[in-house]
UniProtKB/TrEMBL annotation:
One of its GO terms (biological process) is DNA-templated transcription initiation. This is RNA polymerase ECF-type sigma factor. Residues 108-158 form the RNA polymerase sigma factor 70 region 4 type domain. GO terms for molecular function: DNA binding; sigma factor activity. Residues 14-79 form the RNA polymerase sigma-70 region domain. The keyword Zinc does not apply. SUPFAM superfamilies: Sigma2 domain of RNA polymerase sigma factors (SSF88946), Sigma3 and sigma4 domains of RNA polymerase sigma factors (SSF88659). The keyword Transcription applies. Signal peptide: none annotated. Pfam families: Sigma70_r2, Sigma70_r4_2. The lineage of its organism: Bacteria, Pseudomonadati, Bacteroidota, Flavobacteriia, Flavobacteriales. Belongs to the sigma-70 factor family. ECF subfamily. It comes from Flavobacterium indicum (strain DSM 17447 / CIP 109464 / GPTSA100-9).
Amino acid sequence: MNTASEESFVKQLKENQNIIHKICRLYTSDEDSHNDLFQEITIQLWKAYPQFRGDSKFTTWAYRVGLNTAITLYRKKKRSLETTPFDSEFHRMKDDEYNFEEEEQLKLMYKAIEELNDIEKALIFLYLEDKDYTEISETLGISEVNARVKMNRIKGKLKKILNP
């Protein structure tokens, strides 16, 4: 990868790092796991970046890679995530802007979302990010109709969890 591509990747990743933090929050329950998953998603994005053709928005592509990485690791049901060493200081992302205390108000919603399966979590995450059903279906690789049906079922499931 050339220097211009590296700079473009770092710039886009810095501008969109909250996407990764939100994915990490869905699939981890503590700060160390969050940081490990953040690093692993960043590495997978870096590895996949040379194949990013720009057919979709960077954010759509980052959601897809991030969610696939998180779901793959989540399905392995391991407490500690195996991560790939990433030594370059130039590409290391800081999470200084992410404030864990501010998330206290979202605990109830996240607790309910924790009860969903991995695909349902990904779908509700994209929905809460105000993605339209076209982008949700592209990101998850399902039909738009299927995304709508699943979302209606998830909404009902969350209502039952939050209001027993």
